[in-house]
Amino acid sequence: xxxxxxxxxxxxxxxxxxxxxxxxxxxxxxxxxxxxxxxxxxxxxxxxxxxxxxxxxxxxxxxxxxxxxxxxxxxxxxxxxxxxxxxxxxxxxxxxxxxxxxxxxxxxxxxxxxxxxxxxxxxxxxxxxxxxxxxxxxxxxxxxxxxxxxxxxxxxxxxxxxxxxxxxxxxxxxxxxxxxxxxxxxxxxxxxxxxxxxxxxxxxxxxxxxxxxxxxxxxxxxxxxxxxxxxxxxxxxxxxxxxxxxxxxxxxxxxxxxxxxxxxxxxxxxxxxxxxxxxxxxxxxxxxxxxxxxxxxxxxxxxxxxxxxxxxxxxxxxxxxxxxxxxxxxxxxxxxxxxxxxxxxxxxxxxxxxxxxxxxxxxxxxxxxxxxxxxxxxxxxxxxxxxxxxxxxxxxxxxxxxxxxxxxxxxxxxxxxxxxxxxxxxxxxxxxxxx
Length: 435
Ligand SMILES: Cc1cc2nc3c(=O)[nH]c(=O)nc-3n(C[C@H](O)[C@H](O)[C@H](O)COP(=O)(O)OP(=O)(O)OC[C@H]3O[C@@H](n4cnc5c(N)ncnc54)[C@H](O)[C@@H]3O)c2cc1C
Fold this sequence. Notes:
alpha/beta, FAD/NAD(P)-binding domain, D-Amino Acid Oxidase, Chain A, domain 2, 18 strands, 28% helix, binds flavin-adenine dinucleotide
């Protein structure tokens, strides 16, 4: 396999950040006890925890691209504590709901601690989120979500159209719920900050894709300019695990895209509501995610498609901007003349049955990932718990992570991977005005 299997582009949240000194790619033969592959939130949390558990050992953390160019630096920046589960409240699922929210909360708490301890400048904003509905199906979903929040005794405020409009400056939504426990952040700044504040026994190498794994004892990893011998290997590679022969057709990549406006003027900002920073999550799974960012840009993401687990080309991205634009103008007609300045795509790891993956894949090889679009806080908790699990430790968090159902197989069909295509497509059923 070649290094070209890990392409990237210059788009996304990293475009807003200052140049950063990347770590050198790995060269020459290496012998280490631990290797973590992938420096997204999962790999970063895992490496940090391994560093705490094995203070006298070196942990090698390898990233195929530059830090911040994977999904962890390209998401919408909602660090969730309370998950929304589509459909009516199911009393027999209470333990499941609580378990996911426990994992989310643990990850969010870890991130908060690290951001504070290392003074990571990532626009961390503890304002919670607006879960909103524009169309009939999602208004029904709003009632479901409210019942769930009541049953689980989670703090929230229900809002009607006028109250949403007063806060956010759009009449588009018919109903919504504000959940105060949740954090907005600049994702690329977060992962860069986490990577640059690693303990001394973590050695990070960027632009160092692992190209193959030999099933020997100890394990041998092949890179373009290096060969590593290691006792234990953590794969935090998200949907790209299949490139190394793992979880093929259980975990696939769905490609999402969105746009940012330029920075709004004072007058344009005044045409919005009373809040100066907010985040909106749609109650329809295929609906748009919208933010007013700390630096006063509006950001909207509303496409998802099966694209073979790859980013969109510049041409494809330019075409998707028509869809972003339509979503933007129906929400903010008063800002119809404000142009988009940036567009980006990113790939999230999804499974057919919306499960996550955690645990041992083969002797001495462990994997965590595939969070179906909600991995910032959850991936952090999974990564830290995987370090414990791979070190032979058990904890309540490890048990919570181990309790997910196995992934469902996504059947390959001839022509265009229709199975994967349909898995992604299904999220738009009935999306209507929520897109
Ligand atoms: C557009 C978009 C919006 C999203 N919005 C949100 C949101 O608001 N909130 C939320 O919680 N989640 C969101 N998500 C999902 C979230 O980004 C992911 O769940 C999370 O980032 C997964 O983290 P990870 O570390 O497991 O994987 P990644 O961030 O994908 O990291 C895996 C890393 O492994 C590297 N890698 C892969 N293979 C190799 C190899 N062979 N050798 C070396 N390195 C390798 C990759 O380059 C990559 O950097 C969104 C995703 C997208 C795409």
